Amino acid sequence: MAHPGIEELVARFQSARQSGDIARPSEEQIRLHRELVEACPAFTQNVLFLAWLLQRRLWTAEDDGQGPEQAFAEVQRLLEQAVQGSYRSAPALVELGFFLDTYRNSSHEAAKLYEEAAANALETLKDAWWGLIRYWNAERTKETLEKALRLGELAETLFPDSSEIIEEMATTRQYAAQEGLLKPEQS
Fold first, then answer.
1. What is the pLDDT of residues 140-172, one digit of tens each?
2. What is the pTM of this model?
3. d(Cα 15, Cα 44) in Å, to the nearest integer?
4. Distance between CA 92 and CA 81 in Å, rounded?
């Protein structure tokens, strides 16, 4: 059996999401998301969404006399799978941290996950800001250089040791001085 393509995965994910009310997940909706996890366990968005639905169901379920441990174990397994499948992405780490902190009383372990998520997110933010500043420098209009100067000021404050930001901002200041946005001594 061939692995489903990305278009099919996204279509199945959207169909599963729309098959019920996310505020009160239905058995059909959960079944469809579970089938998608079986078809592609590395489709992290679906794995995270299924874990979220199962948690949502736990929040809204009435006590049926059976302990929720089996459901908690499934949610934790899914979240750990999402962390691994996403190469430890910030959103997956945060979700696992939240679960461990809220349901497993593991705030110390959650804090480590939150720290890792924050570091990953900051690295992504630095790269995104560097890319924007580069793009605005390449556009080299008064408006884009003004944007680059504003964002660059914040980027230099948050990432003072980033050689990429430092170098790109040197270019921004040079261009801004040429456009009369900065005095030559400011560039």
1. 999 999 999 999 999 999 999 999 999 999 999
2. 0.85
3. 16
4. 9
